[in-house]
Structure formats: C-alpha cells, structure tokens
Amino acid sequence: MSTHREMKRILVTGACGQIGSELTLALREKYGGENVVAAGHRTPPGPALRDSGPFEFVDVTKRDELEAVVRRYNIDTVYHMAAVLSAAGEKNPHLAWDVNINGLYNVLEVAREHNMVRVFVPSSIAVFGPETPRDPAPQETVLRPTTMYGLTKVTGELLGNYYVRRFGLDVRGIRYPGIISSETLPGGGTTDYAVEIFYEAIQHKRYTCFVREDTVLPMMYMPDCIRATLMLMEADFARLKHHTDFNLAGLSFSAGELAAEIKKHIPEFVCEYQPDFRQQIADSWPRTVDDSAAREEWGWSPQYDLPTMVADMLEKLRRKLVAQD
Ligand code: SER
User: Fold this and answer.
1) How far is the CA of 277 from the centre of ligand 1 (A)?
2) How far apart are CA 231 and CA 234, in angstroms?
3) Is the pLDDT of residue 4 over 70?
4) Residue 91 pLDDT exceeds 90
5) Please, which residues bridge with residue 206 across strands?
6) DSSP letters for 194-224
7) H or E stretch covering 236
8) Which domains, and CATH codes, for the chain?
9) Residue 253 and residue 234: Cα distance in Å, rounded?
10) Cα 190–Cα 209–Cα 82 angle in degrees, nearest 5
C-alpha cells in the first residue's frame, strides 16, 4: 500500500465545479500552482483558476484524454470531482451513469495502472434512501437510494473500496452533505436552494424555494468542506478503518431556519415555498448524519454553525456582487 509516498503532482477533475474550483486553489496554495493541474470538461476556467496553474480540457468518460494528461504531467494523485448531481441526474439518468460510473472507472483504472499514490472520490448523502434512519443516518446503514445519482455514488463507494482491497490503491472519500459556497454556483443538485437563497436575498430580497419550509438536510460551509477533504487525504492510512464512505456532519437546518437567519441581516427578505420534483429527492435523504467514524479515524470536527456561516456568506457574496456591478 502506497501509504508513505508523498503526493507531488495532483490532477483535479471537475475543477470548474462548485467544490473543484475552490479545492484546486487550496491545493495550489499548499502544493504549489504548477503541481496542481485543473481539468474541466467544457467550462473554461475563470481568471483565478487560469492564472494560478495549468488547465486542461478532459472528458472523464474518455479514458485516452485522461491518460494523456496523467502522462504529460506525471500525475500521482487525483481528486476526482467531476460528477452529475442529483437533480440533473434525474433529468438525464444516462448521462449521470456515464459520467459517474464510467468516468470513475476510468479514473480508478488509470490510477491503478500508473501506480498512483492516492485518489479522492467524493460520495454524498445521496447514498441514503427512504429506508435509512433519518436522524441521524448511521455510518453503517441501509444504502438503497432512489435517485440515479445516489445509486452511482453507492457503486462508487463499493468500487473504491474494492480497489483498496484488491489492488492496494489508496482511495478515499467523504459522503459530502449539501455544500454552501460563495464562489462557484452548484449545478443541478437538490441542495442548491441553500446557495441560491443568498444571491436572491441580496439582489432581490425575495426567494422562491423549491423545497418545503420544514425540509431539513445535512449541509456544510465550503471552508469546512475543503478542510475536511485535505484532512482525510493527509490522514495516516494505518488509522483508517473506512476508506471511501465517511459520513460527514456540518450543519443541519430547515429551509425556514435558513431564511430566518438571513432575515436577521436583511429584514425585508421574504421567502416563499413552491416545492417541485426536488422535494421528493430531499425527502428521501436524512436530516442529520452520525460522523463519529470521521471524528475517530482522522480527527474531524466542523468549525461553522448556522449564524457564523450565514454572516460569512452574506459578507463574501456582497463583496463579490458589488465587484461584478
Ligand atoms: N449536493 C448534492 C445534490 O444535491 C448532494 O450530494 O445533488
């Protein structure tokens, strides 16, 4: 097992996405810009990504494109962030299967063949389904999701664990909650309302939320998400009993509680609720998760609560939106 080799040349797939864009910058800060290759499928990188290190167009479903970049840069570590999320996956289940399953298989195979040091493969609260205990979802529990996204993530966890056991490839992953962030918008997730609400509150003082007011889902603020990802990737392999499927808790709040917290800063803000097809997806996921395995095996604990997250989001977004005007 490649436990004590250093990560030196990193590839981030999905680098233009919500998590990938901020993760790439954090990795460049830590390992040096030239050592972190950002890869995107279609979207050209914004100036921060473009100016801080190399960028390559890679479609993860095309193994030759992936392999060419791995060879060119002598990549030894991959953060595989490219994925089709839950709501987008219900609109196009075939694409979700292709990207999330065939793309992942290509990444794992290329990593195995190139004897890589480590691979990060994110999972999600979408692995849970209606039969999972909801408050909290245990680490070891029923995984019978009802979305295509969820079932590709369960498969991803199992496949990653298989590569650990069968091929000695060091694959690690977190079941991310909904991620709230101020830089890149999320694309096609069920938890996107928890980001959209901030933009609408600042710009229009109104938001029509696509889940019910009493909908509670596990969420996390981006700084905690990045910190968790780097912590897990640096954890001592010998201490890990789990590999690809760590539950991770940050915050859990209802859509109504989030709106009320924003209203403390923007008193005119009005939130309305018009649930659409995403309500059913939200209802199939737990309200909270038990993350004691992450706490025990690699020392996880979150830093943001609802008031600190909301205050920080509003400050960062206001600055960003003023700068764009
Ligand atoms: N944020 C994701 C989604 O809503 C969950 O992993 O699809």
Assistant:
1) 14
2) 5
3) no
4) yes
5) 270
6) HHHHHHHHHHTSEEEESS-TT-EEEEEEHHH
7) none
8) 10-177+220-247 (3.40.50.720), 179-219+251-287+304-324 (3.90.25)
9) 30
10) 25
Cα(95)–Cα(283) distance, integer angstroms: 24
Is residue 73 annotated as a catalytic residue, yes or no?
A: no
Distance CA 172, CA 14 (A): 17
Atom nearest to 192 CA in ligand 1: 4
Spatial separation of the C-alpha atoms in residues 301 and 308, rounded to whole Å: 15
pLDDT digit string (tens) for 211-246?
999 999 999 999 999 999 999 999 999 999 999 999
To the nearest 10 degrees (0 to 180), the angle between helices 193-203 and 306-324 is 60
Beta strands in the chain, from DSSP E residues, in sequence order: 10-13, 36-40, 55-57, 77-80, 118-120, 123-124, 171-172, 174-176, 178-180, 206-209, 216-221, 246-247, 251-254, 270-273
Quickly tell me which residue has 């999905």 as its tokens: 14
277: tokens are: 């097809």
**One-letter identity of residue 246:** F
Cβ(85) to ligand 1 under 6 A?
yes
Closest CA to 14 of 113, 80, 76, 77: 80
Supply 290's token pair.
């038990």
| Annotated catalytic residue, options 149, 193, 207, 304 | 149
SS3 content of the chain, % helix, strand, coil (to 5): 45, 15, 35
Tokens of 37: 């290759």
The residue among 67, 61, 253, 240 whose CA lies nearest residue 160 is 240
* Ligand 1 mutation pick, 19, 85, 91, max ligand atoms within 8 A of CB: 85
pLDDT digits (tens, 9 = 90+) for 39-48: 999 888 899 9
Amino acid (one-letter) located at 255: A
